[in-house]
Amino acid sequence: MHERELRAFVATVEAGRMDRAAKALGYSQPAISYQINCLEQELGTRLFVRHPDGAQLTREGAMVLPAARAVLSLVDGIRDAAAQQSRTPVRKLRAAC
């Protein structure tokens, strides 16, 4: 399971369509579809029912969604903490004897 797969999944839920999710993430629609297919294969379940007018979340997809959002929130928090740390000036301690 990869971050990009979870991001594609959540973006599709939020956009309601894979093409809109792709645009929001800066990917092509086939790339989003591929990421979601990979996630579905790894989880062993369908996350969406695809329709010509969009993608409808399945019951299993609805169960996965809160965990996917939580994982992405943690990943974003790690990135924010690392970025904050890199902006913190390093101070040297000098001691004289």
From TrEMBL:
Domain HTH lysR-type: 1-58
InterPro entries tied to this protein: LysR_HTH_N, WH-like_DNA-bd_sf, WH_DNA-bd_sf
Record-linked PROSITE patterns: HTH_LYSR
Superkingdom in the source lineage: Bacteria
GO molecular function: DNA-binding transcription factor activity; transcription cis-regulatory region binding
One Pfam family in the UniProt entry: HTH_1
Keywords of the record: DNA-binding, Transcription, Transcription regulation
Family stated for the protein in its record: Belongs to the LysR transcriptional regulatory family.
PANTHER family membership: HTH-TYPE TRANSCRIPTIONAL REGULATOR, HTH-TYPE TRANSCRIPTIONAL REGULATOR GLTR
Protein name, UniProt field: Regulatory helix-turn-helix LysR family protein
Species: Krasilnikovia cinnamomea
